[in-house]
Design brief:
The chain is mainly alpha-helical and 231 residues long. It has helices spanning 3-16, 22-25, 31-41, 50-65, 78-81, 87-97, 108-134, 138-161, 173-180, 189-211. Helices cover 61% and strands 0% of the residues.
Amino acid sequence: MGLDGVEIVLEAERRFGVALEDAECARVTTVADLAALVWAKLPRRCECPSARRFYELRVAIVEAAGVERRAVRPGTRLDAIIPRGARRRVWRRLRARDAMVPRLVWPAWVDDAMLWVAGALCMGAVMVLGVACGAGGVLWGLVALAAMFVTGGVLVWGAGAWAPRLPEGCATVGDLVRWTVPVGVPDGAGERLIAQVAVLERVRAMVSEELGMPLEKVQPESRFVKDLGVG
């Protein structure tokens, strides 16, 4: 992996609180390899950290969203205390106070729509400018071109004003707690298996966020270089 891969490794170290050796990272080729390396570095867990994590997150949510402390409970829906219109602003504040909080997710159709709009604007601009120049109206062609760019800018700004979605699986405060709680290695075999799966899913989500790629395209067997294009 190149520099993009280095950023992914550094993010994994930050999120899981582990130190990954360079020689070990050099042998990582798939998403599952990275998850296994992270798992091997996790400390043994001697207590349940969920309650402590909830109290930490509650302080951050109260400060970021400006809601009452008593309104933030494990079963409280995030969209009930973080209005859709203020989601980006509040979530940015929340991430500034708590780096473990994942990013918001843009729907895939937004990216597709903006690509279609950009392509249509470029094609329209070329056609209008060509017709105007052919008719001797260079000035009008330039005016039309400028108008198209302004329209495109307004559309882009409008897309930026749309509220992105909450991270997958984070509908309530309790979900966010479980998503961000520090992971440790439990003693029981069954608990260890569950924890390993949780680490793998969190690594997948992290890689998806870092690459700006849909989660379904980031599978455990996905190779960073050949399948995900990590340079």
